[in-house]
Amino acid sequence: MTDILSVRALNRATLARQLLLAREPITVADAVGRLCGMQAQEPKPPFLGLWTRLDGFQASDLHTALHDRSVVRATMMRATLHLMAGDDYTAFRTAMQPMLDGGLRVLGDRGKGLEVEKVIPAARSLIAEQPRTFNEVRALLQEEFPDVNDRALGYTVRLCVPLVMVPTQDRWGFPRNSQFTLADAWLGKAPATTPATDELMLRYLAAYGPAPAADAQTWSGLSALGESLDRLRPDLRVFTDDKGRELFDLPDAPRPGEDAPAPARFLPEFDSLVLAHADRRRVIADAHRPSLTTKNLRVRAVFLWDGFACGTWETEYKRKVATLRLRPFEPLPQEAVRELTAEGESLLRFLEPEAKETVVSLSEEG
């Protein structure tokens, strides 16, 4: 009979792997590797995600990692932009390709006349000449393929050519219209020739486990990952959750007790933690999950109290006053308000170091 892990036990196990039970004194590249990537659909959130996880983190630490190429920003899981450790990008980019190829289906009629096998070498040649923005890539490819929709051409390049964004000295590392370059040129080596899917699953479990195949599929966008976990089964621990589903885990991965203290923490928009499982009760209650995403599919920033998402947050900076507004899903105990206020003031000092005043306010709207 396998051991049963409660939702709270899963919460503490996942927080331990996500560097959210205590800030850790490790490098940015090591942290991004430990997390098996960080969602980076926008450039700012990873800075906040690292601040909330790393001891003494400064924005310059991520800038340095981006410029020394130990960390890259590139299309990966779920065909979305992620920060990846450079070595992990080359190791796992090929494993993502079946999912990325499948993404071309969304083009529908816009893909009329598209010949992927011709577009890819043409795009590689253009980007090998010099880094380019996607506006530039689309325009140049349109000259070569005038009968194909320009957006279809750009989308094909985004999914099928291994590219990384070129960092700049912008505050959050990248301008609004970033340039891209070939990943193999930037990193000095090409992506692995074979898909390291089993190794990717081990890394997923190390960062987000214990978990079933359905969770790994939600996180990655890949399908049929149960086959990979079945291959790995002899070397894994197997548990069940409160619904009787099998959960796989690394034998020596941290699984602290349910009573392990979990400090107040602020997660940025699009944080991978709130997107990495099909069953997200280990992070956010089902009743609050609809509040996580806006109508235009933005993933809101949330704050954690006692390990769980208890509300959303947003900031404003006007006239040298930095304000953090907490919007709890339900009324918070005074202890939570005190701890979140203290942590929130630290967050504001990181975000707005020039502020003359910091204010943490609590919305009563819920």
Write structural notes for this entry.
- The protein has 366 residues and is α+β, with helices and mostly antiparallel strands.
- Among the domains are: 20-187, no CATH class; 284-362, 2-Layer Sandwich (GMP Synthetase, Chain A, domain 3).
- The protein has helices at residues 7-17, 28-34, 45-51, 59-67, 86-102, 116-129, 134-144, 150-160, 183-187, 197-208, 213-220, 225-232, 334-351; strands at residues 38-39, 71-75, 81-85, 132-133, 163-165, 179-182, 237-240, 246-249, 265-267, 302-305, 308-318, 321-328, 357-362.
- The longest helix is centred in the last third of the chain and has 18 residues, at 334-351.
- This is Winged helix DNA-binding domain-containing protein.
- InterPro entries: AlkZ-like (IPR009351).
What's the total count of β strands?
A: 13
Strand content: 15-25%
Which class best fits the helix and strand makeup? Answer: alpha+beta
Label the overall shape: globular
CA radius of gyration is 21 Å
Give the N-terminus to C-terminus distance in angstroms.
Answer: 42 Å
- Low-pLDDT runs of 5+ residues are none
The biggest beta sheet is recorded as: 5 strands, mixed
Widest β-sheet, arrangement of strands: 9-10-11-12-13
Average pLDDT number: 96
What percent of the residues sit in helical stretches (DSSP H or I)?
25-40%
Elements, N to C (H/E): HHEHHEEHHEHHEEHHHHEEEEEEHE
By DSSP (H or I, 4+ residues per run), the number of helices equals 13
- Described by its quaternary structure, the protein is single chain
GO molecular function: DNA binding
Pfam family, one: AlkZ-like
Keywords: DNA-binding
Organism: Actinomadura meridiana
